[in-house]
Structures are given as structure tokens and as C-alpha cells.
Amino acid sequence: SSMRRVADTIRFLMLSRAGAMTSLPRLRCDIFCNVIDNFGDIGVCWRLARQLTHEFDLEVRLWVNELQVFAGICPEIDPQQAEQIVLGIAVHQWGSDFRNITPGDIVIEAFACQLPDDFVAAMAQRTPKKPAWINLDYLSAEGWVSGCHALPSPHPRLPITKYFFFPGFDESTGGLLREKDLPSLREQFVASQGEQNAFWSRL
Fold it and tell me: What pLDDT score was predicted for residue 91?
């Protein structure tokens, strides 16, 4: 599936050896989301965080600058709580002090949101392996995307490299987010007038 290509790309960046998914230690993942256009950015990041947690068994920490906006699409979020666990995912208010935060094995910088300097410095100092640093870009059907997907971008001063991840519509890109049970859930929703009525009443 397209999401499996996401996980495979991340694991390829992190691990030089091949191995079965079940034989690998549980990876920790930081996702940074800077909410700038209502629900678009946080919607993608929340969907990615849930799928990496529930389908790929990653330990995800999601950093969000606007918890109030986040609560608009996820009622379980308490905007007054700087740290909380929601659906098995650690949700944190994106603050200003990252001096004592240890980066995970994977760091996803959503839509070029620019990571905190202290956090990037800690990534570069992490041993024995530096995190896989991925810039998740916007979805595009333009032809240039396939040539830019997975390109490296070395940091100008620190010994760490960021990789660009471009979602897209063919095998040369990163594919699309799609939960493994999405088709069956859609069929269930379409067949149930009750579920449809409940959905519309929540809007």
C-alpha cells in the first residue's frame, strides 16, 4: 500500500540492514505541525500519526502549535493541556524550550514548518544513530515531484541530513495516505443511513 511505502522509506533511512517488521525494535517518531491554514496541516499530521501508531506500531509524539484548532477535528483534545495522550499518541503543545527534549528515531517536519534550533542540534548529537529527518511536503500531481522525492538536503552547519518526502500518484513518489480498513469503512458508511445522519448532525 502507499502508506507501507512511507514506512519502508523511513526504515530504509534509519536501518542499513534488511529485516522483518516484527524483528525491529519499536521506533519513536516526532511529528511537528505548524497550523497555518485551519485544518489542512493538522488533519494530515493527525491522520499520519494515527496510522504510524496503530498500523506500524511506532511510538509517536505529535508537536502542535495550535491545540485549539486541533480540538476542532479531534474532540478528545484538551487545548488547556500542554501534554496529553490521545488515542495512544503523545500530543504536545509546541513551545519554545526544547533544550531537554530527546529526539526520536524519526523526525517528520511537516510542510517545511522549521524545527526548533535546539531540537535540530540535539538530533545532530544523537548517538549511536542520528534520527531520520524527513520533510513531509504537500501533495502534488506535477511532473517535477518524482525527481525531488527522497532527495537529501545536508544541514549547512551540523552533521545531519534532511530528506524530502513528496506524496504523489505514482510509484516514483511517496504515494498517498490510506488506512488499511478505509475501503471497508467507506462501504459501511455508504450503506448505513444512520451513520450518515449521525455524521451530518456532528457538523
Answer: 98
Q: Give the distance, in angstroms, between the CA of residue 27 and the centroid of all CA atoms in the same chain.
A: 13
DSSP letter (8 states) at residue 27: P
Q: Which string of DSSP letters, residue by residue, matches 63-108?
A: EES-HHHHHTT-TT--TT-SEEEETTEEEEE--S--TTPPP-SEEE
User: Which of 19-33, 85-99, 177-191 has the lowest average pLDDT?
Assistant: 19-33
Q: What mean pLDDT value characterizes the chain? A: 88
Contact 77, 86 (CB under 8 A): yes
Contact between residue 165 and residue 158 where contact means Cβ atoms under 8 Å apart = no
DSSP notation for 109-121 = EETT----HHHHH
CB atoms within 10 A of CB 30: 25
